[in-house]
Predict the structure.
Amino acid sequence: MGENRKPLVVLLGRADWAGSCYSVSRAINQTGQMDCRHVSLYPHIFGFPADIVIPICNVPHPGKATDYPREYEETQVLFRQADVIHIWNDLPHVFDGLLPVPQDKIRSCTFTGTLYRQNHVAINRHLKARGLKLAVQNPTYRFPDEYDAEFIPHAVDISKLNPLPIQERESGSIGCYRPEHRSTTAHADITLLESLLGRNHPDWHIALDKTIPWEERMRLMPRCRYFFEYMDANMGYWGRSALEACAMGVPTFSFVSEKALAMSQGRIGRPAVIHVTGEILEKTLLRYLNLDPEEYKELSLASRAWIENYYSYQAVGELYSRFFESLAIPSREKPDQPGKLILKVSAEPAENEYSMPSRTLRHEENSVGRNDPCPCGSGLKYKKCCLAKSTA
């Protein structure tokens, strides 16, 4: 690699349902620390562009990569130039028969959802055997006892998600997303919300719950007074729609698990979401649907500030750049704590009553390895004994 050339990372994926891979590639390029190219085997239903699209997945007549000679050759050139090839939501062997990928260039993967959560034992075994580094977009998908993944949040393009003045927001509207698939608790949670509104808050209604194009959702979202994210205990963490709502200053109801806070490596700060579960939803609605104008304004501003600090392209691009730098440039001097990154962003979100309490992971001065004997003298490994107490 020439001294004047930035490291090149190629993100490769068969699909990118929420546009998260698309956003990460742009976030990395925005930081200017390395070059990133996105190769997709899927023409996205919402039109998220990739640098190269070889449309052989999720289409009626898939064909094979060599059926698209120009795109195929451009991809092979990128592969040869790449310092790291990063697989999105899949394992390297998945691409056998789809697109030849040089095995010596694959260094890492990102997993974002159910595929990894349900198969993490087998996937982690494969990653460990291959020596691949792993990132996850949900902190509850870290399984340190198996193979410690690095949590890096979704990237949100705040330059395109701007709040509307509060007086222009639709009175009584709560936006939500009712997915077509049934693999989450969304349908039951939204039914509960509808029931509570109908019984106790007839002046409020649900908006945006039908499947519509992403651009249309983003045009209508800032007109909502609130957003409701379903309360999936398996995930314990909000989805992309909730982050986009917060970025537009639309206060969001969502479920935040204590595990997600503890496992987030300090990278979600003090969440501005309004914590809800099925048991407390009615009481929470009673409180927040009756906020006075100043309280609502404060909540709206805190929602936007939280996204700016922890999910913006600049914040996430820095994290991914550090992640890839450790793989692409092994000879470069590493920081003492590669997992700890101080982000240069605007201002800390205001402390407010709407947030879940944050947790700070404490590091002892004399670091103890996870597999070392616990210093308390119990005879157990540190990870099986006092590690959990030190991060509580």
User: Anything to note?
Assistant: Residues 331-367, 375-379 have pLDDT under 50 and may be disordered.
